[in-house]
Amino acid sequence: MNKITISHDILLLQYNELSSQDKALVDAAKDATQLSYSPYSNFAVGAAILLEDGTVVKGCNQENGAYGNSICAERTAIFTAQCQHKGKKMLTIAIAAYTDGDFTHNPITPCGACRQTIVEVEACQQEKVRLLLYGIDGTYVIEDGIDVLMPLKFELD
Ligand code: THU
Question: How many angstroms from the chain centroid is the CA of residue 6?
């Protein structure tokens, strides 16, 4: 019998332990929650992407009365970056969520569809994407890209 063991490091940092560049990106993700259209879930998610040229692209979740038409903050931000800054590498994505009058205490993590979208981003740009997953009580800092959240990810050969 063979066995595959998968393990990854995730740092859990307090906001004030983040670098100033990471703080600024987390702040942008927090700001983006205010632009969310989420009348059905009342769960406002914001994402902010740092591109290789220093540009920050924001996105937020956009819901719809036909629920399946809704789109997450991460994919809103990724698709905006791909439309408006085609070919620019995405270095880091920060995510934050606001509900019941405050940001979530635990870090928010991207859903499966968004993880798979980040898989494709990494494949296209041939470079991993750092992830900053904000919560009031701590931020997950993932330096090693989407593999950490999506082991044995699907990719076309
Ligand atoms: N949502 C996101 O925007 N990103 C995530 O990573 C998880 C969930 C949105 C979808 C929906 O509008 C709301 O949060 C509640 O699920």
Answer: 22
